[in-house]
Design goal:
By secondary structure, the chain is of the alpha/beta class. It has two domains: 5-99 and 247-448, 3-Layer(aba) Sandwich (Aminopeptidase), CATH 3.40.630; 101-230, Aminopeptidase i, Domain 2, CATH 2.30.250. It has helices at residues 13-28, 32-45, 51-56, 202-213, 249-262, 294-305, 311-319, 371-383, 405-409, 434-448; strands at residues 49-50, 66-71, 75-80, 90-96, 101-112, 115-123, 136-143, 149-154, 187-191, 224-230, 235-237, 243-246, 271-277, 322-325, 329-330, 352-355, 359-360, 388-391, 400-401, 414-419, 421-422, 430-433. A nine-stranded mixed beta sheet has the order 1-2-3-13-4-14-20-16-18, sandwiched between helices. It has a six-stranded antiparallel beta sheet with strand order 8-7-10-5-6-9. Bound molecules: manganese (II) ion (MN) (2 copies). One manganese (II) ion (MN) binds at residues 96, 250-251, 280, 327-328, 403.
Length: 453
């Protein structure tokens, strides 16, 4: 294997150009809803039709047709119908579009020491101290009782940001010094002007007046999803600009590459699908998570429009499918080498990283991919001259993690984890290598065309 993939490129322009578009996507899409909206726009531009509209209009689908289905504005599946029958299986690239963050509580507003505050409940695995003393933006949606949706974005571009205060080092000698903060410590400061003609809660009242201008009442936070995320754009990283630093690259880097790869596919033999789901970071639960029946139902609907649906055919289709659980893995970190086994863990600039299994402490909770499937993948990637690396994530017994792989494997399909290596995963700003991003995209293009029995 080459020491560093950059040497493969005489002209690095194709890598940099692809990643510039990715960087823009990352800067502009920080929630699952925003990512879904982005994917819909890409789909429509590329001739995909919306599934429910086709059902309503009694339209049929045939080989080469493109269709997408959206689940509650927070997950999306896009299909290109193959020439082979569904029963030969679907080639699926599946990523998640939710990322660790702080969610506003259903009753977030309160006052303390002359400040209007916003109470939060963190989502996913975070190191809490990282979220303090740094600029945060609020992204989300407020739904009024009559169903009107108000998009809520504060803190991007030159707009004012919000944030959580941290204690000055000078006063850390006393009991306030903490190694780790509790979730209840993560309170956002929202304002400091008093509405003096309000009878009580003057600081809260001032902020409520500002929200009222956007059509939002205090009670509306109950029917809202507002996420506090790192404010600002994704950046080129390194003096050589070989990397990208940005929020939410777990797993939007695999979502973006999988989606863009699908757009390269024309008239496939097997039906191909890019699946972008929500709620992975909290266990893939809920109606928009991978554990939901939604994907299965959607495949049934698509098969039906192709005139190929029966309960048994659906089971066979899922059973015979192949999937890349396209999720990030941890790259060996030069500042924390003790957590890794450099011989078996992922490195930057070596291409897409395959994790045969994830899990922790003796592979517990892992999807352990089959060598027969891996052999077919190796063959295809080598044929297409796509570089890749085969890794674990961290030292044995160091810890571990999971993805949506094991959930899809329940259908009996072949699944393997495959994605971009990341430095400081789950931090506010995660780092990836541009060449890995580009080669992951190429690997997904190759996978969509994979022929297996
Ligand atoms: Mn992930
Ligand atoms: Mn994650």
């Amino acid at each position: 294997m080459k020491t560093n993939l950059w040497e493969n490129y005489k002209d690095k322009k194709e890598v940099f150009d692809f990643c510039e578009n990715y960087r823009e996507f990352l800067s502009n899409n920080k929630t699952e809803r925003e990512c879904t909206k982005f994917a819909i726009a890409v789909a429509q531009k590329n001739g995909f039709k919306e599934l429910n509209t086709l059902i309503k209009e009694n339209k049929k689908l045939k080989a080469g047709d493109k269709v997408y289905a959206v689940n509650m504005d927070k997950s999306i599946a896009l299909f290109i119908i193959g020439t082979e029958p569904f029963e030969s299986g679907i080639n699926i690239v599946g990523a998640h579009i939710d990322s660790p963050r702080l969610d506003l509580k259903a009753k977030p507003l309160y006052e303390s020491q002359g400040f209007c505050m916003l109470d939060t409940h963190y989502y996913g695995g975070i190191k809490k101290y990282q979220w303090m003393a740094s600029p945060l933006a609020l992204h989300g949606v407020v739904v009024k009782k009559d169903g009107t949706k108000i998009d809520f974005v504060v803190g991007e571009d030159d707009d004012a940001v919000v944030g959580i205060s941290d204690l000055l080092p000078h006063l850390e000698k006393g009991p306030e010094k903490k190694a780790e903060f509790s979730g209840e410590d993560l309170n956002i400061i929202a304002g400091n002007i008093a509405k003096t003609d309000a009878k009580e809660n003057q600081f809260k009242a001032f902020i409520l007046d500002i929200l009222k201008e956007k059509g939002i009442e205090e009670e509306d936070f109950f029917s809202a999803e507002i996420e506090a995320v790192p404010a600002g754009k994704a950046r080129n990283f390194g003096l050589d600009k070989s990397m990208i630093m940005g929020y939410g690259q777990d797993d939007r880097v695999c979502a973006y590459t999988g989606l863009m790869a699908l757009m390269q596919i024309q008239s496939p033999q097997k039906t191909v699908c890019n699946l972008l789901v929500d709620k992975e970071e909290i266990g893939s639960v809920g109606a928009t998570g991978m554990h939901s029946k939604w994907f299965e139902n959607t495949v049934a609907e698509v098969m039906n429009l192709c005139g190929q649906y029966s309960e048994l055919s659906l089971r066979r289709t899922l059973n015979h499918s192949n999937m890349l659980s396209s999720d990030v893995t941890a790259a060996v970190d030069p500042n924390f080498t003790a957590a890794f086994n450099p011989a078996t863990d992922a490195h930057f600039a070596k291409g897409i990283s395959f994790n045969k299994f994830t899990g922790a402490y003796g592979k517990s909770g892992a999807n352990d991919a089959n060598p027969e499937f891996i052999a077919a993948l190796r063959n295809e990637l080598d044929k297409q001259k796509v570089p890749y690396q085969a890794n674990e994530m961290g030292k044995v017994d160091q810890g571990g993690g999971g993805t949506i792989a094991y959930i899809m494997a329940k259908f009996g399909m072949n699944v393997i984890d495959a994605g971009v290596p990341v430095l400081n995963m789950h931090a506010r700003w995660e780092i990836t290598s541009k060449v890995d991003i580009y080669e992951t995209y190429r690997a997904y293009v190759a996978f969509y065309g994979l022929k297996t029995k």
